[in-house]
Amino acid sequence: MEDNKSFFKSPWLYVGLATVALFALCFWGIDYISRPDLDDTPKVEKEVIATLDSNPELILLARQQGWIKETATEMTSVDASKVTRIDSVFSGCKLETFDEFRFFVGLHEIPAAAFAHADQLRSIVIPAYVEDIKYGAFAYCPNLETLKVDTANTHYDSRQDCNAVICTWKGKLMLVAGCRNTTVPDGVRFLAPQAFAGVHGLTTVAFPERFEEIGEAAFKDCADLETIDIPQGVRFIEPETFAGCAKLHKVSIPKSVERLRQHAFYGCTSLSSMVMPKKYAPILQEPFADERGLTVYVPKGSIPSYRRAQGWSDFKGNFREL
Prior knowledge:
This protein starts with a helix and ends with a strand. The strands form 6 sheets. Strands 12-14-16-18-19 form a 5-stranded parallel β-sheet, with no helix packed on it. A 4-stranded mixed β-sheet has the order 8-9-10-11, with no helix packed on it. Helix content is about 15%, strand content about 20%. The chain is α/β, with parallel strands linked by helices. The longest helix is centred in the N-terminal third of the chain and has 24 residues, at about 10-35.
């Protein structure tokens, strides 16, 4: 028995075990390093998705990016599936329709301004495996009228045929990007920054109940926006929310709004009427560039309190009672 105890106390036992473990680790490491990189690109059936006749602009871009050969006259689903990054490839492009985008199944992120200033783009379908769409990815696509997400996508969707990109954020629904034909679905609580920036043909927007937040520059440079009723629940009119909306002439501000932030209405040269049913004025943080033609309608007897409120002492517009 003593011999057995001595054996387990022997330092040579632990040296031997350590040596065996070291060799095992080395063999495992060599095997791991020598393995070929696993291709996690989803497997797709090969089919022609675009030709010089059906979508010449896409073929030219694919050639330039090396997605297809310089002499190729068509692009296949397999070619598209191998694209894993787009960066600013489509920014300012001349594509008119890009429903073929759904075949870019190797793509996981659409960066900010990815399609910015794609002035002729009218239709696009977001791929199934995209997990991250940055704010402003579709800003300044003035003629975009159909914006859909592949139904297989588990991170984003276009529920209720809304013509928009919807996701869950902080446990609630957020509209990430919209277009001229967007309908804000029931249940949406947030509008992302730049969600509608630069969209043309959008004259007004109807919000669902219990809406909470409109992101910064959400409607910036919406050239055709004429009226907007800010939904009850919104606390702040964020910087540049409506900047550059030259046709906007009437805005209704709910009682829940506490602040109108910097440049929120800069460039709203037609803005002539703002309705504020709240007895106590929200704080102004230089939201207007020139408010001399603006009439603010406030509750009866509240004009003196508005004139004393923070940011209103230099207000050059007019007050009228509701």
